[in-house]
Amino acid sequence: MPRSLHRPSRRTLLAGAALVALTGGVLIATPAAAAPPGQSADSAQPAPSIHDPVALLEALAPELLDETLPPLDAVGRAELARQTGATPFELRLPAEAGEALHLAPAETEGAGLPVSIAVNGARGAAREAQGISWFDGADDASAAYLQPVRDGVRLLTALADASAGEQSSYDFALPEGSYPTVLPTGDTLLSDASHHYIGTLAAPWARDASGRSLPTTYSWSGSTLTQHVELEGARFPVLLDPLWLYSYDYSTSSTGWSVNHPKASENAVSRLLHGCFNCYFPIFGAPRSYPVDGEILPLSVTPFTWTATAAPVKAQTANGGALQFLALDGHFDGAGSLITFSWYNDPSGYLHLYVHAMVRKDNGPAINLINSRAAGANWLLYWKRVADSATGSGGGGGV
């Protein structure tokens, strides 16, 4: 079960580029426009019932509906494994409220671990609406939606009114000694006692019927995750969610690779990459100087063949000082795709590279998996180059 929270310093080094096969993420979400109080976010009509998940999502968060991606069944997974030679992502949704949902990552370098999650308070048999499974909540004022997405699942709670309360909780089946790490971006990484990455909880999210974002946080009690939301002044209904997904994470504990400096500091990594970015970043077109906000990088990759494919990106700074790369028009993953690389040290001092991607374009299960494996190998090379070369512990930082 999770133990004490580990927070890397706010100078955690983050750099990114949209390159090969940016799987392990979800589609970019654009905030819905606000509507006058008492109305749904996209019309002058009252918001739909919480027992109509598709209509409610269309009213409060229409951008999320496009992310629904029904999981492959056992036959489909077996065929995909035959085509690609790799085990694909697995999501098994429960048929009854008392059952847990089960997830396992695709077979890539830097992959996470299988996990089971139970939705507390859900009742009855699962119902389905356009790929979204849903259950009645603990009372008539709440409902639970399970939305399958690319390499993950969104666990939505819908609140009809204030009587539903200000929290929802989930029981995770985790190895003993597992713990969370909160990155400056707001993502929470779960790791086991040996610091092997399990999976990611995206930053908590909540929205009311006027389109307003509500204050919301996570807390842990043992292996139970609770999402809290502040409902003062909210227009009902309200939606909130943890999003569970699989990205990539690299360290000596997870890769088995031997490197020269397995416990290199964030400062050492910062100095190294500011001294020569493209000496270590394994993508054609990367600059020698560390990228700055607004800089356009003419990256190119070879995702399917040995022919270079354009992957232009723009550097930008995200929450917590994270440097991200945003895919531009002409990028093979789709304009608006986003990737962030986070360097951090775990409680034992080992250096990790965490890669979080959000991808616009869906190339289909086979190409997605092939790209994911190619990307995983690339990021492993990036981590190894840096961990072999980053020395010292003083100065630097401020990325």
UniProtKB/TrEMBL annotation:
Keyword Signal: yes
Signal peptide, first to last residue: 1-34
PROSITE patterns membership: TAT
Keywords for the protein's UniProt record, in alphabetical order: Signal
Domain of life: Bacteria
Record-given protein name: Tat pathway signal sequence domain protein
Organism, as annotated: Herbiconiux sp. A18JL235
